[in-house]
Amino acid sequence: IAIRVFRAAAELGAKTVGIYAQEDRHSLHRYKCDESYMLPTDLTPVGAYLSIDSIVDIAKNKGVDAIHPGYGFLSENARFAQKCQDAGIRFVGPPADVLKKFGDKTEARKLAIQNNVPVVPGTEGAIKSIDDARDFVMGTNGIGFPVIVKAAHGGGGRGMRVVRKESEFEDAVIICQSEALKSFGDGSVFIERFVERPRHIEVQILADGKGNVVHLFERDCSVQRRHQKVVEIAPASGIPLELRENLWNDAIRLLKSSNYKNAGTVEFLIDQQGRYYFMEVNPRVQVEHTVTEEITGIDIVQTQLKVADGYSFT
Questions:
Q1: Burial 113-146 (b: 16+ CB within 10 A, else e)
Q2: Residues assigned a catalytic role
Q3: pTM as predicted
């Protein structure tokens, strides 16, 4: 994604600066930008890319105007976005207050419910203890198995486990908490009912931060392995127009309600009865954005950079 961003910036006539951990000093992205700088060597490879102060300090010292966070690492971190803003550096993504809403998937669920977007039954927020988790699933009014345990922050299939029986439950929660902490710096997890063999449909959104929110149709990412998307198809086939329009409209309504800015993806599940449920908002560019670029001719990363620079859709 770093190389993709460098290309988009270069095509717009902007100079680019890259950062890298010591272990990545021979990585290609270091050589594809105009300038590159090493992160502190006393940090782990992952820790280096999660070091907010180090990244912002490099940006300030080198006269950087804007930071594109890519995906993963700090791309959904509200504190990072706020640090950029405080330093006078444009964050190429949603503002910090929006990231707080959507970077935490439990908060995103609450916002969806407020906007009458259907959601899968699940915990109201991050689980506070194993006992609370067990009660939610196996208590008197528990939702029962199967369930899915998910990291409240981040994505990419990390910090996620499907649990089908009681004997696996506690270990799954502990593993997800550990994976979430290592990958995203936050070990919070929540629980939802697991929808068997759903279609996974995501709506690509662009918003200019001035009240204009548009969709770029949808992608079908139902073919997955270990919660990692393997095949992306756009537009999705075999979905009735009315259902398709409901997904587009709900996605736009949800993001408008949050004063969204920049690129994002609203993800839904469609069960075998044709009912759809809000899953999450990815408040960043996704790996698969290029599939949508192919069917629309719109350069999503260039649009991100332009929106961050104050451009409007009107």
A1: eeeebebbebbeebbeeeeebbebbeeeeebebe
A2: 284
A3: 0.83
